[in-house]
Specification:
mainly alpha, 10 helices, 56% helix
């Protein structure tokens, strides 16, 4: 099936909005609403509704997963290149709850539809393949990452693997791609071939993949 967009979407897509000046938009909820903005139309089209549904599902499945709060925080920090800093008392699940609540409010105003789905995206084979990719791909973190990531690569790998196993393999794969892009982590040629294969299995768009072309070596 063809996705509603050829670009990144859902939680991994949202993290791109947490750039250096993201807080000029306001709080987390305002970032979500900006991401889902309908502009001056005052009515949402089907693609915007599908985006909201994907984001709502990503936040929900990750919050319900067995990941520790520290693992969720690590994934979000890396996906935003350290531009989102968790404050004292704030946890990964509290952040996901805020994102989820903002999505639900948007859906109540503009209409909600089911998130796109396919049985193969949630199959045991897909999960096994993504976990293998996460385990095998080299993740050479640039020195700059140490400014906001004090964790070892093994901990990042473990958080991605836990996401694939207990939340969503498709989300874990999108987060892996986002983490590469946000942190300028090189992609080995052997890994790139597998990335393209997995992306095809998840029907992910060409624009999402092509955004990483400059990292392939």
């Amino acid at each position: 099936m063809e996705r509603f967009t050829s670009f990144d979407f859902g939680l991994s897509g949202l993290t791109a909005l947490f750039h250096q000046d993201w807080n000029r938009l306001g709080e987390v909820e305002e970032v979500v609403l900006s991401h889902l903005s309908v502009g001056e139309a005052c009515i949402a089209d089907e693609a915007q509704q599908k985006e909201a549904a994907a984001l709502e599902r990503d936040a929900a499945v990750l919050a319900r997963s067995t990941l520790r709060d520290s693992q969720i925080e690590l994934l979000f920090s890396m996906a935003t290149a350290g531009n989102y800093s968790f404050q004292s008392g704030e946890t990964g699940r509290l952040l996901l709850e805020r994102i989820h609540s903002a999505c639900r409010r948007w859906q109540q105003e503009y209409g909600g539809i089911p998130a796109e789905s396919s049985p193969r995206w949630f199959s045991s084979d897909a999960m096994a393949e993504v976990r293998d990719v996460i385990g095998d791909t080299p993740l050479h973190l640039p020195d700059e990452c140490r400014r906001y990531c004090g964790s070892a690569v093994s901990e990042l790998r473990g958080a991605l693997d836990a996401c694939a196993h207990s939340a969503s393999a498709e989300l874990a794969f999108r987060l892996l791609l986002r983490i590469h892009l946000a942190n300028f982590i090189p992609v080995e040629q052997s890994s790139w071939a597998r990335y393209r294969m997995v992306a095809a299995e998840f029907s992910l768009g060409e624009e999402l993949l092509s955004s990483l072309d400059f990292l392939v070596n």
